[in-house]
Amino acid sequence: MTDATAYQGPAEAEFSDYIALLKPRVMSLVVFTAFVGLIVAPGTLHPLVAFCAVLFIAIGGGASGALNMWYDADIDAVMKRTRNRPIPAGRIEGREALAMGLALSGLAVMMLGLATNWFAAGFLAFTIFFYGVVYTIWLKRSTPQNIVIGGAAGAFPPMIGWACVTGGISVESLLMFALVFFWTPPHFWALALFMKEDYHKAGVPMLTVTHGRQVTRRHIFGYTLVLAPFALWLGLTSIGGPVYLAVALVLNALFIWRGWQVMQRSDAESYADNHKAEKAFFKLSLYYLFAHFMALLVQHWVVA
């Protein structure tokens, strides 16, 4: 299904269109959390090796984005938020995006293995597969739990960064994973609360579409309660400390409070003020994850 109004740009692709295929906003989160996982891990890497490791993880994340845009071109074309992306807008052909995604995936995995270790490289390969196949091809269009299970793909990068240094997995890396994993559903569900029509039009079974906004609001608040203990537990591990715990306590109290406000809303109230509480929660969620991982960095530097 296509939208005749989708095309808003030139037919010839520009360099920026190929960058857009890599989903730079999502990739920035991948880069940052992977970087933090690498820095706070016990042990050290040569600065050049560390830079290359983060770069190859970023390329792998971008490759996942290209594969996602290739497969999702049909639904991107009917959503206001995505219809001017390079493929539905007609500036890049789907087969180009597929070739680019596969080539970058192979490059990223191979180079990460050569630069660090093959466990980390295998982990990156699994992450690309999980996002490109498990989430994009299977979960996204088949279940309202798509963003819950599929969120694991976005939670793996700090574990990969950790594995680049240690060659393995630990409680600390699992808790960094949990922090991102349990943050992802309320973050995206808050967006879906004021973008429901887009998902409904595209036939994506987001929770707002299949169960309604009131159920989604309750799920958002429930996840804030589940998320907080994992965020605080991370502060009690070897990479935590008073700086991180102070930040986590404040942020999770705010997150729970905002989640409570969202849960108490009715559709009538939400429409009356243009989803004010939902948008406030979504905005806070953008800062939430960044602040936690920045606090881990600051805590590491304070101890060092």
Walkthrough of the structure:
The chain is mainly alpha-helical and 304 residues long. The chain folds into two domains: 14-168, UbiA prenyltransferase (Tetracycline Repressor, domain 2, Orthogonal Bundle); 170-304. The chain is built from 16 helices and no strands. The chain has helices at residues 15-21, 24-40, 47-71, 73-76, 94-115, 118-139, 146-150, 152-155, 157-166, 171-193, 196-202, 207-210, 213-234, 242-263, 267-272, 276-303. Helix 3 packs parallel to helix 6 (118-139) and helix 3 runs antiparallel to helix 9 (157-166). It is flat, with a radius of gyration of 20 Å. 49% of the residues are buried. The model is unreliable at 1-10 (pLDDT under 50).
Question: In a nutshell, what does this entry contain?
Answer:
With 304 residues, this protein is mainly α. It has 16 helices and no strands.
